[in-house]
Every structure is written in structure tokens, then in C-alpha cells.
Write a structure and sequence with these properties.
Structural class: alpha+beta
Number of helices: 2
Radius of gyration: 15 Å
Mean pLDDT: 87
Order of helices and strands: EHEH
Shape: flat
Length: about 70
Amino acid sequence: LYDFPVILMGKEYWKGFFDWLENTMIKQGAITHAEIPFVHLTDDPQEVLQIIHNTTQGLGITLTPLNSAAD
């Protein structure tokens, strides 16, 4: 498996889930602190695009735009 991000849009909405990861899953040994940076909480669509861009570059994947419906 490759390391890939989990992007959660809506910081306020997902805050409880993120707290559960940190306070329950890590304490029970289901995940480690090293895995937390793969979970991204954001409210910014531009940040989502940047995370995707950085990840695909790191994996050697080239993104190509989809053709628009007008084409």
C-alpha cells in the first residue's frame, strides 16, 4: 500500500472524529501517532487541491484535467 491522504472537508464537522482517533485509537494501539498526519482536516478547497497535488507528485502520478461537458 502507498501512503495516501484522507481528506476530511469541514473542520467543525469532523473534529469529534479526529479527537476520537487521537484519544481512543492511538491509546488502544490501533493506529500510531505517525499515521495521524495522513488525516487532513480543512475548510479550504484550495488546501484540498494542494494535498492531492503533493500526494500525486510524491507517487509519480500525473494529473490531467477532465474534459468539460462543453467540449
